[in-house]
């Protein structure tokens, strides 16, 4: 099966997210790690979580005889939802993943209002929703529950700080174990945080 | 919010699925109806179900100064999953939608093996999974549970018929009510079929 995590497309979705292909020269990006992890989950029948294709507004397509249609003009569209969703132990999983080069904080400018709106809907309807934050320099990746993100988002909208301190992410979020096969084993945190103690999941 | 069901993109995803923009001159396609229905579900806080963007393999992108990146060469990729998924009453919903001009049967050639594989995974992990089949000429749309689809798929793989008879779809599937706002109100069938009697949903 062809998954949207093929290097090529992944390079371009990275490009779509960040406006540049970051870290292509210093190992795997968060997206690559997540795609590999999701592939591991899939092949080991643990969960079915896919990255959504990059939304593209197609303007012009050519149809050469005896060969595949060629898109000649298209533009990157802003996604209306988060990038990843799927199914784990009967639960709907929905998350966004962002990495920052900042050391001290995660800039909320990485998130868009419509993504927050979507995440609120997911939580409201009983899905498991979170943000994966990677601090690239320390190569630490945290799971930050959507419900916590909302409060910082509101603070920002009310004139508060436009970022979440690294210390806050570390304290209120959950560090994700790095494993050889599941490079960002976020489901381990889900098991611990949502499945065991119910966490802040809606209706639990 | 911009949803992937904007007419333009929808026209092209239709094109991607069928190789041609069908019925553009005879009213709404099944995809348009589903997108409108999902929009209705969303705005009325009933469910969060989106169509996935059309997977595109991007080969060449231009970056003009002071304007948006332009994709200059790209190709349609075969989707690795179904087209629609989301969250309804805490349940993971996953489905594919196909329309046929045939009167007597639904050709299984509309479905790909990797989609069947994906649907089996969804069912196995406790998601609600089905196929929406529209017979364009009669304008009837049916919900056909994935578990039933699997059996006909196996029959085909074992040399059986390569389509599902209209009468079978009508008998074993569930006709979807046409409503003014929710044009293909498939969640009405889900309520009746999965939520009430448990249906064939895995683990119910």
From TrEMBL, chains A, B:
Class of the enzyme per the UniProt entry, highest EC level: hydrolase
Keywords, A to Z, come to: Cytoplasm, DNA damage, DNA recombination, DNA repair, Endonuclease, Hydrolase, Magnesium, Metal-binding, Nuclease
Which EC numbers does the record give?
A: 3.1.21.10
UniProt-listed Pfam families:
RecU
Gene Ontology molecular function: any one: crossover junction DNA endonuclease activity
DNA repair among keywords: yes
Q: Which GO terms describe its biological process?
A: chromosome segregation; DNA recombination; DNA repair
Q: Which residues form the signal peptide?
A: none
What does the entry list under GO cellular component?
cytoplasm
Which note does the record give on the cofactor?
A: Binds 1 Mg(2+) ion per subunit.
Cofactor entry = Mg(2+)
Name its cellular compartments.
Cytoplasm
Residue numbers marked as site, Transition state stabilizer: 98
Residues at which Mg(2+) binds: 81, 83, 96, 115
Q: Which HAMAP family does the protein's record reference?
A: RecU (MF_00130)
Q: What's its job?
A: Endonuclease that resolves Holliday junction intermediates in genetic recombination. Cleaves mobile four-strand junctions by introducing symmetrical nicks in paired strands. Promotes annealing of linear ssDNA with homologous dsDNA. Required for DNA repair, homologous recombination and chromosome segregation.
Q: Which family does it belong to?
A: Belongs to the RecU family.
Please give the name of this protein: Holliday junction resolvase RecU
What gene is this protein translated from? recU
């Amino acid at each position: 099966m062809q998954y949207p995590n093929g290097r090529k497309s992944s390079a371009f979705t990275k490009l779509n997210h960040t406006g540049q292909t970051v870290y292509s020269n210093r190992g795997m990006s968060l997206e690559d790690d997540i795609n590999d992890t999701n592939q591991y989950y899939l092949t080991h029948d643990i969960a079915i979580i896919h990255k959504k294709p990059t939304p593209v507004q197609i303007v012009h397509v050519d149809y050469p005889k005896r060969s595949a249609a060629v898109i000649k003009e298209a533009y990157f569209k802003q996604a209306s939802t988060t990038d990843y969703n799927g199914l784990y132990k009967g639960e709907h999983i929905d998350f966004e993943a962002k990495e920052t080069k900042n050391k001290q904080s995660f800039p909320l400018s990485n998130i868009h209002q419509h993504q927050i709106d979507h995440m609120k809907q997911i939580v409201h309807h009983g899905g498991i929703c979170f943000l994966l934050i990677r601090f690239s320099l320390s190569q630490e990746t945290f799971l930050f529950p959507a419900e916590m993100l909302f409060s910082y988002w509101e603070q920002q909208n009310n004139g508060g700080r436009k970022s979440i301190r690294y210390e806050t992410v570390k304290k209120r979020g959950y560090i994700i174990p790095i494993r050889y096969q599941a490079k960002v084993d976020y489901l381990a945190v889900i098991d611990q945080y949502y499945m065991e103690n119910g966490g802040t999941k809606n209706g639990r």
